[in-house]
Structure formats: C-alpha cells, structure tokens
Automatic annotation (TrEMBL):
This is Small ribosomal subunit protein uS4. It comes from Peptoniphilus duerdenii ATCC BAA-1640. Residues 8-92 form the Small ribosomal subunit protein uS4 N-terminal domain. It comes from the Bacteria. InterPro entries: Ribosomal_uS4, Ribosomal_uS4_bac-type, Ribosomal_uS4_N, S4_RNA-bd, S4_RNA-bd_sf. Transmembrane segments: none annotated. The gene is rpsD.
Length: 203
C-alpha cells in the first residue's frame, strides 16, 4: 500500500516547490528556484483559492494523498487542540517525517524509502510503515543494516547539529521523540486556519 502511495507521489518536486511557493522536496536548490512571480502564492487568489493552495502546500510538504489527509483532518477535529494545530502535529509525528527530522535522511521522501525498506527501528523493533504515528518516548534508530550504509551514517552525522525542541538525538544513530511537537516549534510556514476553513465548506 505504501509503495503505491509513494509511486503516486513521484513527480518533478522542484517544479512543485516553485508552484506552491514552499520547499516540498527538502533540497536547498529548491529555495533558489522559487523566484518571485512564479509561485501561485505570489498571484492574486480568491479566498477559496488561498484556502485550496494552503491545503495543497501542507499536503505536498508531508507527501500524503488526499484520502489520508482528509482522514487526519477528521481525526484532528475531535482532538482537544485547535483543529489546525492538531492536524500539523499528527503529520509531524509520522515516522517518515521524524526519520527526516532526526537526520537519517535528507528529505521526507528519502526518509519514507528508508522506512519502507526496513532500515528504521522504533523501540528496537523494525517498523516499515511510514505513516505510523510515533508517541512521546519512542526511540527511533537505524537498523543494524542501516548503520552499515555510508550514506545513512553520513546523513545523520551531517545533520546531527540540527535540533528541534521535541527531539533528543544520540550519537549512536538514534533519537527520541521527547514530547508532542508544539505548533510554534514545527518548522513549516502554513496558515492552518485556511485549511480548516477549506474543509468546513467542502466536506
């Protein structure tokens, strides 16, 4: 199932980053290609257009399909937090995203492949479901086979200095999700309320 989802998400990510006005591929060059006047976010949009664009931006950033996104939104509506905040938190705590934040991969897409191929362990056990939602206290690590990969080791060592308040890194190729991410600590510029407004009118 995840392999099918991954295949459907394939596409020219630099072009998509420019169209959405958001780096959705994690590559530094994408920022340079998002020149002013080329992104839809730079153009005049109706209120509906702004809401739709913001939904597309968040969905593309985390690499999830519409059905997954809608299901998460429905769950977020039932959460005690504000709906937009809960939605972003749920996405941020996906295993593929955390593998990226922890430095095992250079993009969420690469992290998704890493998880799908069984190179990531959660609490010492292999878990190959990219959409798995981690919980505070979960320890995420490279598998023994993953630790033999020069690429994965280099990724982790290079990205070790990048820190997030909700992640504690260990130099032994592991990291812990210490708490539910605060919305202000999640490094993505999205107007959550526009997404809430979009679905309140289109569900």
């Amino acid at each position: 199932m995840e392999a099918i989802i991954l295949a459907k998400m394939m596409g020219p990510r630099f072009k998509e980053s420019r169209r959405l006005g958001l780096n959705v591929c994690g590559h530094p060059k994408a920022n340079k290609r998002m020149t002013k006047g080329t992104a839809r976010s730079d153009k005049k949009l109706t209120e509906y257009g702004k809401q739709l664009l913001e939904k597309q931006r968040l969905r593309a950033y985390y690499g999830v399909l519409e059905k997954q996104f809608v299901n998460l939104f429905k769950e977020a509506k039932k959460a005690p937090e504000q709906t937009g905040t809960a939605l972003v938190q749920f996405l941020e705590m996906r295993l593929d995203n955390l593998a990226y934040r922890m430095g095992f991969a250079n993009s969420i897409r690469q992290a998704r492949q890493l998880v799908s191929h069984g190179h990531v362990h959660v609490n010492g056990k292999k878990l190959n479901i990219p959409s798995y939602r981690c919980k505070p206290g979960d320890v995420i690590s490279l598998s023994p086979r993953g630790m033999k990969s020069a690429i994965f080791k280099e990724n982790f060592e290079t990205n070790f200095v990048t820190s997030y308040p909700y992640i504690s890194k260990d130099k032994n190729f592991k990291a812990t999700l210490t708490s539910v991410p605060g919305r202000e600590d999640i490094p993505i510029e999205i107007e959550d309320q526009l997404i809430v407004e979009f679905y309140s009118k289109n569900m």
